[in-house]
Amino acid sequence: MNPEAVKAIIASLKENGYPYVEGKTWTTDAFYRETRSKVKKRRQEGCITVEMEAAALFAAARFRGVQLAQLLYGSDDVSSAEWDPREMGREESAREALFRLALDACLRL
Predict the structure, then answer these.
(1) What does the pLDDT average to over 36-50?
(2) Are 26 and 32 in contact (CB under 8 A)?
(3) CA-to-CA distance for 9 and 22, rounded, in angstroms?
(4) What is the residue-wise DSSP string for the chain?
(5) What pLDDT digit, counting tens, does each position of 45-73 carry?
(6) Which of 107, 105, 103, 109 has the alpha carbon at shortest distance from 12?
(7) 90: pLDDT confidence band, cut at 50, 70 and 90?
(8) How far, in Å, CA of 107 to CA of 109, rounded?
(9) How far is 43 from 49, CA to CA, in rounded Å?
(10) pTM score
């Protein structure tokens, strides 16, 4: 990710009072090949999430010379026994909040 874009996202999150976690993401387009051994290996490498699109977006951004960072929003959390709806405790939906935060970060660049 572009370091300046990451700084802009973090500033937006902090200014708007949202907690966040920075971490490594494993990007794969082969979810049927997310085997237990691969998941274990990625966890050992420090990955805290897995998703399917970021690698292609980052490759295109690098090729085009465009700044890109990612706000990763997880709608399904399997780390506990109870489902977490991820509405961030606000009146607006999580997706609306993420859009607003991303727009704010872009304006900071």
Answers:
(1) 90
(2) no
(3) 11
(4) --HHHHHHHHHHHHHTT------EEEE-S-GGG--HHHHHHHHHTTEEEEESSHHHHHHHHHHHT---------S---SSSS-----TTSSS-HHHHHHHHHHHHHHH-
(5) 999 888 888 888 888 999 999 999 888 77
(6) 105
(7) low
(8) 5
(9) 9
(10) 0.71
